[in-house]
Structure prediction request, 581 residues.
Amino acid sequence: MRPILSIASTTVGEAIRRRVLLIILLIGVLFLAVAPGLGVLSARSETTVLRGMMLGIIQLTSAVIAIVLTVYMLPNEIERRTIYTILSKPVQRWQFLVGKYLGAVSALAIMMCLMSVVMVLMYWYQQHAPISEIANLLKAPMMYFVQMSLLAAVAVMFSTFVSPLVNFFLSGGLYLVGSLFNPFFETLSSNNNTPAFTKTVAKFINLVLPNFANYNVQNPIINPQQTIGNETQYFINVTVYGVLYILGLLVVGILIFDRREV
Amino acid sequence: MAAAIQTTKLTKSYNSRSGKVNVVDHLDLHVEEGEIFGFLGPNGAGKTTTIKMLLGIIYPSFGEGYVLGKEIGDMDVHRLISYVPERPYYYEHMTGLELLKFYGSLFGINDPALFERLLEKVNLHRDKDKTISQYSKGMQQRIGLAQSLLNDPKLLFLDEPTGGLDPIAHREIRDLILSFRDEGRTVFISSHELSEVELICNRVAIINKGVIARQGKLTDLLRGGRIEVTVDGFESAEAFLKALPLKDTNVRTLPSGFLLDMPELEDTSSVIDSIRGAKGKILSIVPRKKRLEDLFVETVSSKQPSKTITVEESAGANQ
Prediction:
């Protein structure tokens, strides 16, 4: 366990110093800071627009950070030969990969926390909202964190066998498809009128494709008229789903990385 | 003496467009415990690939290898070995001390006194709080050597340890490597710096196109130098030649005397006795040593290295 934690903490140290990540984070924070001013441009309720905009900024910024952070992680270690010194010590390849992943997720958590703090401060400043409303608003970034951890696991898995550029588009593409089209495949696979073959294909895609849409819980938060039935149960279920999926992706990544020539 | 490294027909192949290419081809390597072993070869000869296989970082396609008596890839061996890669890169945001703490933690070592001792050994104790990005090349190489000593290794793999360093840093690294041998460690050096290798290595292997072309004790491999003897007191070169106990020897006539150019392995004493017996006057005896560079060029220039020449003649000829 110790090598994993050491590698993870080193990865955090590196990640929070990477300029490109800091620039993305800064842009996200700046947008959050000016978001209250942009709310007036919309014809809809200012509060609704502000919530939607702030959560959207956090989600988009976190997704870009998660991908940029993870696609270069392994290739950089190989290119700079730091991996050789580490693997020549009593460190197994799976420990290295898990350490890198945990480090990336921890760095992501730090950055998302920072954005959430800025969001809360700006929202409170603009709306003078009660604590309960702010706590409700924070449910979305928490779910986004699970979503981004899943996205990071996808990118880490791909990074064991594809180049960073290909990985960027693969992971990004999978995130978009998993976020936007998963409900579509779900409907197709459960609809009785769907032809058998299409139904099977939709079921397969639905099974294999990580369901990023699970974590897009912003709608009930933005529009309080919409509700999730049993919210706590739902959050537990999708978190467990995410953790299991992450474990599966890491196992696949480890199996590939274990056989890979570095 | 026990073998620190022993490989038998160790091979690494890659598929290329033109078919299977053996980057390392049936490598039989023998490194004894407690020696400094030089692993030489031109760029692309297979040196780093061999080291990576011995470290278990890449997998052999064929053959077998043992490091400290255990099969390569055995995780137990990793507690007893260390590696400093060519042009090492360390996490630049760390200080020298943090770097040692990080690598120490991979062994479960958290011993501040040890870190201080190692920093002192590589003469970086005053710079321990500087970040790696502030270190010069020589300092980075030295911190690399410090991290390689964290686990008190029995065997160190150093890939081009003096590459790109200035003469002072060269000397510092050389002294450190010699101190490793004095501490009873085995050092496996892959290098291009032939003069450096000649100074510190007991035995060497020259790899060319993936094949070990020469392997043995440096003293044995560098035999075959020449000795030049300048003499006077003979009427002619023929008279001088007649007095010698050698056949097919080169004698040149000089303005004042004659120059005998003979192989180092010939019995020098009997030649000297013969010259004296014939009333000749020896003006000078100059040994012309074979250099490692000569051997290296001679070895890698040969078109097809097809078989290994192992020279292990004089058992007690360690440097």
Q: What stands out?
A: The radius of gyration of chain B is 24 Å. Chain B has two domains: 3-80+153-221+292-311, 226-288.
